[in-house]
Structures are given as structure tokens and as C-alpha cells.
Specification:
Elements lengths: L1 E8 L9 E8 L7 H11 L19 E4 L2 E4 L5 H8 L2 E5 L6 E3 L2 E2 L2 H9 L17 H4 L13 H5 L1 H5 L6 H11 L7 H8 L13 H5 L6 H14 L6 H16 L6 H7 L3 H16 L14 H14 L5
Parallel strand pairs: 1-5
Antiparallel strand pairs: 1-2, 3-4, 3-5, 6-7
Helix pairs in contact: 3-7, 7-10, 11-12
Length: 319
Amino acid sequence: MRITFAIQRFNPETDHAPRLEELRADIAWRGTTVLDALFHLRQEVDPTLTFRASCRSAICGSCSMVINGRHTLACKTLIGPEVEKYGPTITLRPMSNLPMLKDLAVQMEPFWTKIRAVTPWIETNGGAAAAALTKEVRTWLHNADACIMCGACVSSCNSLAASPTFLGPAALAKAYRFYADPRDQAKTQRLETLIAPDGIWDCTRCNFCVEVCPKDVQPMEQIVRLRRAAIQAGMTDSIAARHITSFVDVVHDEGRLNEGRLPLQMLWRSPVALAQTLPLAAKMFVRGKVPFFWHRPLASIGRIRRLFKHWTKTSTWAS
């Protein structure tokens, strides 16, 4: 079948900006992957076509790219389903949120810099590490150790698109992998680093990193676990952390969310931030959207508080 590949091309030596270029080839599209097609195009159509690849088995993560708008691996993306869904034209672009290198290849150094920033190894603080991980203990890592460093989560991250200094889902998932490792002896130091600006509280929880991960690492879930661990450790000075603790306190006290009390309880220690919300609060008040800051607790508040008490006994923030 004649397939058209609309490929983003960019040569830093000759091009001022990237462009889409169509390359066509007869592809046995059933059972053929996008990566197979790229090798065919480079061999038979355009030898200058640049892309990364290695294992061809969804293990190395080298061939991560954007295929028909989805951040995924070319080696595990079959031509057939793409044609059935999108027609005989397949659009290929390099990963987002990383500098372009050439064609479908991006500069990975910013990615590795952020991975190194989270200390991706076990810290023993001068002591001896415990024995090797058992199968039971590995379940505590919640599959965070399955990451193949493909960068698909980084490419799809909205927070990174808005703030390039954000550590990103891959680095933070890697941080959780070592925080959760029982052999690590620097848990407090790790959390103190991760709660800083551009750390765990900058994730907007858009869930795209979970959707695109080829190994089900669920980076956003690992970030949430780090947030829980930080709160449990008493690291609640940031407004983002206080939003969570205040939310829980309000529901515990009243049995429901009180949108009038929550911002006051969350921001009273940050007068500048509180003042910045006043214009919005005034507009909401005029339109009848601001509830009274104090409500009488629900009649069933006792049952609700028993749920809180039971939850406190049977779970932890880091679980």
C-alpha cells in the first residue's frame, strides 16, 4: 500500500525553521511498525532522514516521537491501525519540550540534566546499604523502576511546556523510585529538594504522562506519592501543600468543602497571595458566588469524622 509520511524536517545547518515534508513509499502495512517504515524510507527514499533507534523492542526508548499527535514509541506503533484511524498519511514529529537536533531527533541533554538533579542512586549517608531488594519490597516502588527513559512523558507534559525549568515527570518518577527504596538513607534530604520551586508542587496533574507512558510507570501517581510523603513529614509551608491540608481540615470540621473558608485558611500566612485573590473574590461576591466563610457542620459530621479516624489508622500519606 502506498503510504505518505508527513515528516517534520529540520537541518540546523541549512534551515531557519522546521517544515513538514512528505515522503512516500509502498509499505506492507499489516504487521509493519512506524520504525520499520522509517528505516525503509532512509534506505530507499531519502538517506538524509534522521531519527533515533536501537533495540526495536520497546526496551531502550530511543525511538520516542510524536506520531499522529500521540507521544509514543515508533517501534511499537503499527502502520495498520494508524492507517485505519487516520488514513494513508501518517504525520511524524520530534518530541516536544526538548530542543530540536535534526529531523526527528532531539537534544536529550536537558532531559538527563534533570534526571541527574534528583540524585538517581541510593544514598547511604556513609553507612552500609541493606540487602538487595526482595520481590515483596519491589512492590513498594509502584513500578517506578520500570522507566526506560524514553521521554514520552516529558514530551507530553503541559507543565514543562509552560515552565521549562520544571523537573518534569520522568525525573520526579525516578526520584520516587529511590525515595521509596528502603535501602536509601536520605529520604528527608530528597523531599527537601523536591518541594522547592520547579519540583513536585508544579505538576498540574493533567495525566498526559500516565496516558503516554509505554511501561505503565504512571509518573503523575509517583509525584502524588511524593507529595503525600512531604506532607506526612511536615513539609507544609508552601501554598500548594496548605491547599491539601486545609482542604482535609475543612471537610473534617464541617463534613463538606467550604469554598469561603478554604482560601482564608490556605493563604492567611501568605498575605501577598491573599491580597492578590481579593479582586477575584470581590467579583465572585458581587455575582453571589462566594459562600459564607462559616457553616454549621452537617448533621452526620460524627460519621464523617469516624471515617477520617479510620483512614488515619489504616493508611499513610506515602502509600
